[in-house]
Amino acid sequence: MVAEINLLPSKNKKILSGKVYIIIVGIVFIIIALFLTYLLLSSKQERMLVESKQNQVQAEVITLQSEVAATTSNETGSRQSAVDFTEMVSYPVSPIILEVGTYLPRHSYLRNYEFSEQTVKFQADFEDKTMIAQFISDLLTSPLFADVKVDEITSFQVGNGTTVDELEDFDEVPRYSASFTLDINVSYVSSMEVTK
User: Dihedral, CA atoms, 86, 88, 94, 97, nearest 10 degrees?
Assistant: First the structure.
């Protein structure tokens, strides 16, 4: 008979006792409890942050609504003032613009105009001051206008819009821009409207 020889060391498996199982379950329970506490605290912070942003957005909404209300009331006022102005100005303005256009000399340009109840303000460009003087004398002969006032005369270079004082170039002759205020002869303009 052959003897059984086992050269490998023998290992005895230790059996875990009940205390070790209880310790492992306790550690797992503590880890889960800590994780749930962390989630609870972080969700409270996020909720507070969201509530503060929500309050901020609500404040912005209230501000914008008040601005819209103010703008709407201003637009209503400006519309009403436009209606009032057109009802107050009861004369046609096209003949006035045409009359000014007929008296403008050649190479003169009407830049802008503004009507009020009794006056017309406009700006025109001329080649020289004698053209301005001739234009004023022509306007004074017109029955549409009671008075002609020159508010301002300025000179400028044609190409780049600089004034003569800024540039001392004697090769080019400057142009002149004049601002006028015309007093409208309302009775004459109104009678024109009736006869048409």
Answer: -110
What is the reported pTM? 0.49
Contacts of 176 (CB under 8 A, 6+ apart): 125, 126, 127, 128, 129, 132, 153, 154, 155, 156
Secondary structure of the chain in HEC code, one letter for each residue? CCCCCCCCCCCCCCCCCHHHHHHHHHHHHHHHHHHHHHHHHHHHHHHHHHHHHHHHHHHHHHHHHHHHHHHHHHHHHHHHHHHHHHHHCCCCCHHHHHHHHHHCCCCCEEEEEEECCCEEEEEEEECCHHHHHHHHHHHHHCCCEEEEEEEEEEEECCCCCCCCCCCCCCCCCCEEEEEEEEEECHHHHHHHHHHC
For residue 150, the domain's CATH number is: 3.30.1360.100
Q: What is the pLDDT of residues 129-169, one digit of tens each?
A: 888 899 889 888 888 888 888 888 888 776 655 555 555 55
- In-domain check, residue 44: yes
Structural domain contains residue 4: no
By residue range, what is the domain housing residue 153? 92-157+174-194
Q: Are residues 105 and 186 in the same domain?
A: yes
The count of domains in the chain is 2
